[in-house]
């Protein structure tokens, strides 16, 4: 990473949260038909079972985001996005590590996620971090040709 980045929990309904989620929605809508997107809107991201994290540079500019959703026996990565101009700087890796640390601090050892087959950079990031394919879970369509499901078992020494 070329410049320092801070990652903190924030209200997703801020202007920066809305901008990042809006850009993510536009990106995913261009890749997939609506039935293959599982968007959480800003109000859903502000619910008590979700922590919305924002990465900012030293100037305070919002560069990316990720949400951690809590279930009874696992946590889920949702709404991971890095602004196009900030890609390649290690921000996605830092967001994922922060989400993993948060999951561990909340007592979760398993983290799952869903991503699409056309998001090859995201799949590469998750596989490099130690995610492995898993079965469909939650409200996702089990027979989707685009949606892929991954999980990781965390330990306090896990690194991204």
TrEMBL record:
It comes from the Bacteria. The keyword Transferase applies. InterPro entries: Acyl_CoA_acyltransferase, Bact_Acetyltransf, GNAT_dom. SUPFAM superfamilies: Acyl-CoA N-acyltransferases (Nat). Residues 10-156 form the N-acetyltransferase domain. Keywords: Acyltransferase, Transferase. The keyword Acyltransferase applies. Gene3D superfamilies: 3.40.630.30. Transmembrane segments: none annotated. Pfam families: Acetyltransf_1. This is GNAT family N-acetyltransferase. It comes from Hyphobacterium vulgare.
